[in-house]
Design a protein that fits this description.
Structural class: alpha/beta
Oligomer: single chain
Keywords: 4Fe-4S, Iron, Iron-sulfur, Metal-binding, Molybdenum, Nitrate assimilation, Oxidoreductase
InterPro entries: Asp_de-COase-like_dom_sf (IPR009010), CT_Nitrate-R-NapA-like (IPR041957), MoPterin_dinucl-bd_dom (IPR006657), Mopterin_OxRdtase (IPR006656), Mopterin_OxRdtase_4Fe-4S_dom (IPR006963), Prok_molybdopt-oxidoreductase (IPR050123)
CATH topology of the largest domain: Rossmann fold
CATH class of the largest domain: Alpha Beta
Helix content: 25-40%
Number of strands: 27
Family: Belongs to the prokaryotic molybdopterin-containing oxidoreductase family. NasA/NapA/NarB subfamily.
Pfam families: Molybdopterin, Molydop_binding
Radius of gyration: 25 Å
Protein name: Molybdopterin dinucleotide binding protein
Length: 774
């Protein structure tokens, strides 16, 4: 049904009770004047403007996209469509799409042929390989490409070139999810399923504003709340979000103190013996160490650190401790904050200590921020090895070399694959000389933007940007490659609960734009990459042959796709692992109390949660010889940048429901653009009064790194905290000289020691009325 998804982003309620199936509600949106009878054909796909993975169909008329509707049978959304997806398809037809390659001549980007553009990239690559070796080349990709494209990029970077420098912008949004899962379960992969919402009696959301980041999943939760025997909600968030307003208990800790709060919750659960001792003894290691550490974190201590009443912490602990079916979800409020992995691991610990895993309503979802972030991790394009293999396990590297028919020494495994912040540091110091950026916009999304612009603008750095619009990053490039968008190419992608969808090509890309897979394969052929038998590498040539190759790479690993095919996925979406033993997929991991954590099989040997120091195989084997789930503890330490007299506020950044990432697509859609056209500042009423600011006033926010101007919104955020949405850059301002709009002008160059995820929620800031504004 049609609805005004701007005014009503979550749509009408369809209440249901525990254990019942979520009722169907089909949302649709067509171009003005069209009805479904006018549509030539409907092409299956899934949502691309968030991480939920909603099943959709694209409407095509006369070779053009003209609308979208939800798929009633889809297990993820049962027909519902997020506001961004209802309108976002219009971005494909935006008149400023990139349609021809561009190269830099005499300081300007000018149109060129594909031969010229790719020739320049290949020539520079060959010269660097000859003169400086593989480590002079790096790749920085996205969480929005397809599985086949990530796998191809990983094969080219780690295999053909032999560089360790490959990561995705998933480092900004989902690296801590992966790290927390590896620390607890020995391997990536979400234990839970979205259907756990249908069964849970308590849902705990830690730093997860699901109402705006995954609106369809919030609709599912709202429908449970509207039905009989609704679940209780725990919300941990310093802002007064829709989730907080619906919560049974809302905890609003001071940014940077999440770990202290989690330790206090575990203190109460263990002290009051809300522990499933049989499960803990049978399925975990590390309980005694955990109990000893959290014994030092009574609610009174956490209250002093977090500025949250001790009684409220006890109330939250009682909610968790009394749950019969506990679902826990985590997102950026934890992942992008201080001690990110350590805090996220404690969420896993709560569910394990309570024995709440592997059965309906009992699960953990360490959420993603982008639609294909899971594929980036599985395929090895984000700082991991392909197929959740362990870079420090020689047998895993040898297995990958055999799959690719390459020599083992060709695949770098002297250290973990390089994380994004280190890749940019190498570019800064000059050891990395070619950086290929695909489908992401670091000139707006990375922290400390003045530094990032300086790095990307260096004459000695050859910057290749592969994208669909001339982004702020593309404007700095030496070569710009026009890419096809979603709906203009075929491939699979996997959402946050391991659901795999096939997205079919619906229309042709404009002009000379090409699918990302075709661009990567063209590069490989121009470079004449070969395997050890002298055959072209990679060996695949289109999306389906790439998928078949990926299936072989996934065989026997936790993310096993061998039971899937394009034909099977045309029938329905399926959760991995899907293999001969699980031909219909797997709804929940670890239902049998067995984990992907055996020393010879695990993806990672773990790290110290405070320092990030890695463990080796012998240390891991001594701690966890039987491959159980691991309960890991960590002391709270203060953030590196604390509020001070000069900068008295804690600044956090985040999202709005109407925009996605740096607005390269959503900012070009009239409904979404007009719903949230400009950056704003959220602050508390008390803080606004103290600084003589009123609703709508223009304020200037400063940190040691820069200044941003934004209109004030007075909301229920906790005192002492400021919030800016991070989406807003400069491509639509017409003026690149005054850089006072992007929230990341203010954020700090710092990252979590375990996940290496940048910290966007711990900057110290000051605020004042903007000069000349009232």
């Amino acid at each position: 049904m049609r609805r005004d998804a701007i005014a009503d982003p979550w749509g009408a309620r369809t209440p249901y009770g525990p254990g019942q199936s979520w009722p169907v509600r089909v949302d649709s949106q067509l171009a003005d004047g069209l009805t479904e009878d006018d549509v030539d054909r409907w092409v299956p796909t899934a949502a691309v403007l968030h991480s939920n993975g909603d099943g959709l169909e694209l409407a095509v008329k006369d070779g053009r996209l003209v609308g979208v509707r939800g798929r009633a049978e889809d297990r993820v959304n049962r027909g519902r469509v997020d506001p961004k997806d209802l309108y976002g398809w219009q971005a494909n037809a935006s008149p400023d799409r990139l349609t021809t390659p561009l190269v830099r001549r005499d300081g300007r980007l000018v149109e060129a042929s594909w031969d010229e553009a790719m020739g320049l990239v290949a020539d520079r690559s060959r010269a660097l390989l000859d003169e400086r070796g593989p480590s002079s080349i790096g790749f920085y990709t996205s969480g929005q490409l397809f599985c086949e494209e990530y796998y191809t990029l990983a094969a080219i970077a780690h295999g053909a070139i032999g560089t360790n420098h490959l990561d995705g912008n998933t480092r900004l949004c989902t690296a801590t999810a992966a790290a927390a899962l590896k620390e607890t379960f020995g391997c990536d992969g979400q234990p839970g399923s979205y259907t756990d919402v249908d069964h849970a009696d308590v849902i705990a959301l830690y730093g997860h504003n699901v109402a705006e980041t995954q609106s369809v999943l919030w609709s599912r939760m709202l429908d449970r709340l509207a039905g009989p025997n609704p679940p209780s909600l725990l919300c941990v968030d310093p802002r007064d979000t829709p989730v907080a307003r619906a919560a049974t208990v809302h905890l609003a800790p001071l940014p940077g103190t999440n770990l202290a709060l989690m330790n206090a919750l575990l203190h109460e659960i263990i002290a009051r013996d809300w522990v499933d001792h049989d499960y803990v003894d049978r399925c975990t290691v590390g309980f005694d160490q955990l109990a000893a550490l959290v014994a030092d974190y009574p609610p009174e201590r956490a209250a002093e650190i977090c500025r949250v009443p001790a009684a409220r912490i006890r109330e939250a602990a009682a909610l968790l401790g009394g749950a019969q079916r506990l679902l826990s979800t985590v997102l950026q409020g934890f992942y992008q904050s201080h001690q990110a992995t350590a805090a996220a691991v404690q969420v896993n610990n709560i569910n394990l200590v309570r024995g709440m895993l592997g059965r309906p309503g009992c699960g953990v979802l360490q959420m993603n921020g982008q639609p294909t972030a899971e594929n980036t991790r599985e395929c090895g394009a984000d700082g991991d090895l392909t197929g959740f293999r362990n870079w420090a396990n020689d047998a895993h590297v040898a297995e990958l070399a055999d799959l690719w028919n390459l020599e083992v020494k060709q695949i770098p495994h002297y250290a973990p694959p390089t994380h994004a912040m280190q890749i940019f540091r190498y570019a800064e110091n000059g050891s990395l000389r070619l950086l290929w950026v695909s489908a992401t916009n670091p000139a707006v999304s990375l922290p400390d933007l003045a530094r990032i612009r300086s790095i990307l603008s260096q004459d000695r750095l050859f910057l290749v940007v592969q994208d669909v619009f001339l982004t702020e990053t593309a404007e700095l490039a030496d070569v710009v490659l026009p890419a096809a968008m979603w709906g203009e190419k075929t491939g699979v992608f996997t959402n946050a609960d391991r659901t795999v969808h096939l997205s079919e090509k619906a229309v042709d890309p404009p002009g000379q734009a090409r699918p990302d897979l075709d661009i990567f394969l063209d590069y490989a052929r121009r470079m004449d990459f070969r395997d050890r038998d002298g055959q072209p590498f990679p060996s695949w040539h289109d999306a389906e042959t790439a998928f078949e190759a990926w299936k072989r790479a996934s065989a026997g690993r936790p993310c096993d796709y061998t039971g899937l095919s394009y034909g099977k996925l045309r029938q329905r979406a399926i959760q991995w692992p899907c293999d001969a033993e699980h031909p219909d997929g797997t709804e929940r991991l670890y239902a049998d109390g067995k984990f992907f954590a055996q020393p010879g099989y695990c993806e990672d040997y773990g790290r110290d949660l405070v320092t990030g120091a890695p463990a080796d195989q012998n240390e891991y084997r001594a701690f966890n010889p039987d491959g159980k789930a691991m309960l890991k503890a960590a002391e709270y330490v203060p953030p590196h940048e604390m509020p001070s007299a000069e900068h008295p506020f804690a600044l956090i950044t985040g999202r709005t429901i109407y925009q996605f990432h740096t607005r390269t697509k959503t900012g070009r859609v009239p409904q979404l653009r007009d719903a949230a056209p400009e950056v704003w500042l959220e602050m508390s009423e008390q803080d606004a009064k103290a600084h003589d600011l009123s609703e709508g006033d223009l304020a200037e926010i400063t940190t040691p790194r820069g200044a941003v101007r934004a209109r004030v919104r007075i909301r229920g955020i906790r005192d002492g905290v400021l919030f800016l949405p991070f989406h807003y850059g400069y491509w639509d301002t017409g003026d690149q000289s005054g850089r006072h709009r992007a929230a990341n002008e203010l954020t700090i160059t710092d990252w979590d020691p375990v996940s290496k995820q940048p910290l966007f929620k711990t900057a110290a800031a000051a605020i004042r009325r903007a000069e000349g504004a009232r």
